[in-house]
Design goal:
This protein has eleven helices and six strands. The chain has 261 residues and is an alpha/beta fold. The chain has a single domain, classed as Rossmann fold, CATH 3.40.50.1820. Helix 2 links the parallel strand 3 and strand 4. Helix 1 crosses helix 2 and helix 5 crosses helix 6.
Length: 261
């Protein structure tokens, strides 16, 4: 499964034109490693491409200022390397990057799945407000990747997930160069400036998600002309890690629906 992708020199990937590839964009922290527990293909022939964005999973940030193009350009390069139907999936801040990518290059996207996106109401949500200080951002990154947090996560947050996976997942935050920059890029002004997106979309959410709650969905829906919701009542924030087989089935079904397959 191609979790890592270089920032240049992409090989052109020829796929079945009647099949769909889900290009899955991770949230803050661990990079494409977020998708490693999923099967590939996901289900019903739907393939998975889970690249790590620049500044995550050991990928360096390019020289110069960091802006949204730093990340959307990498996603666009992955999309351009694919034939067949392309469905963008974004989780957490990955949802924001998917929104920005789809707004810039709608010609490359046949469907959008936003899974608990961090995008709307950024001016009122507590966590973004707390993270305004660079010192606090660095301290938060170190805390998230610390040994005690990894142990707590193994026992309470991802209790059914292999411990080595959980420890690596949170440890990856420590080397995520782009972690701090995201709090400057994802702002209310950025979200308000997004145009209306005509690509068909689904908002995917876990009813038990306490990190990004489903009440955020209504504001995100207003950015689309064609959008629906899919809520799983027993999912938390990380079903791709906690229930990978079930997650793959749901994402495959949604991808095929969006791609008209």
């Amino acid at each position: 499964m191609p979790h890592e992708s270089a920032s240049s020199g992409h090989d052109h990937v020829v796929t079945n034109p009647q099949a769909a590839t889900v290009v899955a964009i991770h949230g803050n922290g661990g990079g494409g490693f977020r998708w490693e527990r999923l099967p590939d293909p996901l289900s019903q022939g739907v393939r998975l491409n889970g690249p790590s964005l620049p500044g995550f999973a050991g990928r360096p940030l390019p020289p110069g200022p960091v802006n949204m193009d730093t990340f959307t350009d990498a996603v666009i390069a992955d999309l351009e390397a694919l034939d067949g139907k392309r469905v963008l999936l974004g989780h957490g801040i990955g949802g924001a990057i998917v929104l920005d990518t789809a707004a810039k290059r709608p010609d490359l996207v046949d469907g959008i799945i936003l899974h608990a996106p961090v995008a709307a109401n950024l001016e009122t949500r507590l966590f973004p407000k707390v993270m305004q200080s660079m010192a606090i951002r660095k301290a938060a990154k170190a805390t998230i990747s610390s040994f005690p947090v990894r142990k707590i996560a193994s026992r309470f947050i991802m209790a059914k997930v292999p411990q080595e996976y959980v420890e690596r997942f949170f440890r990856e935050y420590r080397r995520a160069e782009a972690f701090e920059a995201m709090f400057d890029l994802l702002t209310a002004d950025w979200f308000d400036g997004l145009p209306q997106i005509e690509t068909p979309a689904v908002l995917l959410w876990g009813e038990l998600d306490r990190i990004v709650q489903v009440v955020q969905a209504e504001a995100v829906e207003k950015k689309f002309t064609t959008v629906s919701r899919h809520i799983e009542d027993h999912w938390g924030h990380y079903p791709m890690i906690e229930q990978p087989a079930e997650y793959a089935e749901v994402v495959s079904y949604l991808a095929r629906e969006l791609a008209g397959l």
